[in-house]
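User: My instructor asked us to take a sequence, write out its structure as tokens, and then describe one feature of it. I'm not sure where to start. Here is the sequence I was given:
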Amino acid sequence: MKIGIVCFPTYGGSGIIATELAHLLSKKHELHLVSYDKPVRFEKKTDFFFHKVELLSYPLFKRVPCCYSLALISKLVEVTRDYALDIVHSHYAVPNAVSAYLAKKICKDSLKLVTTLHGTDSYLVGSHPSYKEVTQFSMQQSDELTTVSEYLKKLTLTKFDIQREITVIPNFVNPKRFKKLGKDRTQKIICHSSNFRPIKRIPDIIKAFKIISEEIKCSLFLIGNGPERPRAEKLAKNLKVHDRTQFLGNMKNVHDILGKSDLFLLPSEDESFGLAALEAMSCQVPVVASDTGGLRELISHGEDGYLVEVGDTEELAEHSLRILSDPNLQEDFGRNARRKVLEKYTPEKIVPQYEDIYNKILNNQ
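Assistant: Let's start with the prediction itself. The structure tokens for your sequence are:
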């Protein structure tokens, strides 16, 4: 098969999964990745083609979102014609799925379209009045529509008036890369990784860490960047935990930190899946997360982590201390988390599900 994958190159889960999928599919198929920059998980040695979407630098178009959509359409038309693509798989609906649909119409061929919804492209951005109708249309026109969790599937069907099947294919993680490493036995390491948006509730982590650090010797590693970072840094100073808190910024080798961590916190207001939590679980790191969204499908409360009420920092700290104060419990939770990953969320389990979808739509043409 000749497959095109469209994604954003940023540190969000959609771009990470799309890029990992491209690396894996390229071992068996001709793969073309299309984006405005090389994604963060892009490897130097790769078997797939990368096509950069070039943007026109013109004052009138500055800060006009449609400019990227138009440039993406043109690039997809070019790649489809030059390489005779069979399928374009869009990760994130806005504007990727819309651009893919218009590229298909321009090419006037049998190009098949697959759209994978990752979360905010469905219930936040895509459902905004400015985008809802066109997002809904692109979902309906895709030959296959998938989501990364049952939660996101139900939410999509609630937010949009679409009459079609939606297939749930969860995210995956490479357990050979994300694995347990040697831990620092002089102190506990608590970790968090995200794009530091308000929905991630970074201040809750710092408030909980204040409580935890008063009971046990520990450090907090915060991986990522975003609009909430200045507020988080200020709060860490105000609560006098800045000397034990490290803001590491964006990192490509997140697994190097996760593998040495003792606990992962994800107190998000909402999560469609929780890829960051999955990566921690693969490293045998217990997760304490919000009892919301797709996290309920990923984490088994009391078996491989704990789920807490959104915004309850005392409960977040309480469950964290329970794990960190009991080495046997921490070990059991970590082992159970790793086992779950190996049973359900490896590339060997997930990638064939996408291939089945590709084969189905090509055979039905």
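For the description part of your assignment, you could build on this observation: DSSP finds 14 helices and 13 strands in the chain. Try explaining in your own words what that tells you about the chain.
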